[in-house]
Design goal:
By secondary structure, this protein is α/β, with parallel strands linked by helices. The protein folds into 2 domains: about 220 residues, Rossmann fold; about 170 residues, Rossmann fold (3-Layer(aba) Sandwich), CATH 3.40.50.2000. It is about 45% helix and about 15% strand. The chain has 17 helices and 12 strands.
């Protein structure tokens, strides 16, 4: 751990659920709190339930109009770092005085490894002052392990902290952070103790690009949900099909295909109401698409919702649709947590046969899969569900069982904790 400054004392006995009491773990992520990345928040909270001490180090502070209640306590003690300050300068001087060759070699290596990617090179230059200060702060706190969420800038930050301090690190790769740009991915893997992918699809994606040796460090740990929160007693009454889509308003989520499917439903005289939950850069275009399709009466755009309102919306729906696609820049899903939340509530889901989604949704058993971008396929699936409450119930029951068995939040946290402990120094 570098100088060993501030290191915790003797290892405490393991807790019943598998993580060591007083294990201090730091988390680094691009932005916090981010309402579309609740899986990071919930994973940190689950680790704390297991007895770990979690320190939060966002690269940027996210300011959103809507935030989950659970995030507030972590926000209050998160280590937000300015772009420059006297303390940041002091941290750089510390490493230059104590380990000048390590400092210079690390900076040179980072620049050399990222020079071919303007995004990564720019991020390295912009965040370097912050990351060095974070390294000094983690060292002082006695952080024993650093875990980064996302394979892009956060994983690079973790690598830099490791180089400067010796603190071991790992990272989780999700979706577009992995699929769009794999600059320095092999290097990040080689320096890490281990890395997590949220799907077998992503593990194979990494193996093809980083090689078998690097892929040996990969562990598949699914994101998960708390099944005690995402529940409902019964589906809503009424003859109008209540369709729900919870997704950031971005191209990769495929909203336009769902709107086209709903236009088909309307043309066939099918009664429905579509609820779009989420915000994002395509809000104006989606509103225009809804209007042009003649669906202004049938579609409600709710914007982002905090968790309790989100759960209420899930309980009021007959079906959740997530029509994800591969976008023009290569972005694609990992395994969307939104699907897990809906399935945990016993909702049937209609979603795309793409990336890791079929690892969660088994076609005709725990949901209905359609080809990406297939509006007619989405409409046909929705008509089947509208016509059969038995099918909705059967798919919903199987969906909940699937999530309980393979996508439980606390099970995932325990697996991550065991990996961290296995690499504890």
């Amino acid at each position: 751990m570098g100088s060993g400054e501030g290191r915790l004392s003797a290892v405490a006995p393991p807790l019943e659920k598998g993580v060591t009491a007083r294990l201090r773990v730091a988390y680094v992520m691009s932005r916090f709190p981010k309402i579309t990345e609740t899986f990071v928040l919930h994973e940190m909270l689950a680790l704390e339930e297991l007895g770990a001490e979690v320190e939060v180090y966002p690269l940027l502070r996210e300011v959103e109009k809507v935030a989950h209640d659970e995030a507030r306590a972590l926000v209050e003690r998160a280590h937000y770092t300015p772009w420059i300050s006297g303390a940041i300068v002091a941290s750089h001087l510390h490493f230059l005085a104590r380990a000048p060759f390590t400092y210079v070699r690390t900076l040179a290596a980072v620049l050399a490894r990222t020079v071919k990617s303007p995004n990564y090179l720019g991020g390295a230059l912009v965040f370097w002052p912050k990351i060095v200060h974070m390294a000094r702060s983690m060292q002082r706190q006695g952080v024993e392990h650093l875990h980064a969420h996302f394979a892009n800038h956060p994983a690079l930050a973790a690598l830099i902290v490791h180089r400067l301090t010796g603190i071991p690190y790992s990272f989780t790769a999700h979706g577009s952070d992995l699929h769009v740009d794999q600059t320095a991915l092999g290097w990040k893997l080689s320096e890490a103790e281990f890395a997590v992918t949220v799907s077998n699809y992503n593990k194979e994606f990494v193996r093809e690009r980083a090689g078998d040796a690097a892929a040996d460090k990969l562990r598949v740990i699914h994101c998960g949900v708390d099944g005690s929160l995402y529940t409902r007693e019964r589906e809503p009454l009424g003859t109008v099909l209540e369709i729900l889509c919870i997704a950031a308003l971005r191209e990769v989520k495929g909203h336009r295909h769902l709107i086209d499917a709903c236009q088909l439903l309307k043309s066939r005289g099918r009664p429905f109401h579509l609820h779009l939950v989420g915000g994002g850069p395509l809000e104006r275009k989606i509103r225009e698409h809804v209007s042009a399709a003649g669906l202004s009466t049938e579609v409600t755009m709710h914007g982002p919702l905090e968790k309790q309102r989100l759960i209420a919306r899930l309980r009021a729906a007959h079906v959740l649709v997530l029509p994800s696609i591969l976008d023009r820049e290569g972005r694609r899903e990992g395994i969307p947590v939104t699907l897990m939340e809906a399935m945990s509530c016993g909702l049937p889901v209609v979603t795309s046969r793409i990336s890791g989604i079929p690892e969660l949704v088994e076609h005709e058993r725990s949901g209905l899969l359609v080809p990406p971008g297939d509006a007619a396929g989405i409409a046909a699936a929705l008509e089947r569900l509208a016509d059969s409450s038995d099918l909705r119930r059967e798919l919903g029951e199987a969906a909940r069982a699937r999530v309980q068995a393979e996508f439980d939040l606390r099970d995932g946290a325990r697996r991550l904790a065991r990996e961290i402990l296995a690499h504890r120094r």
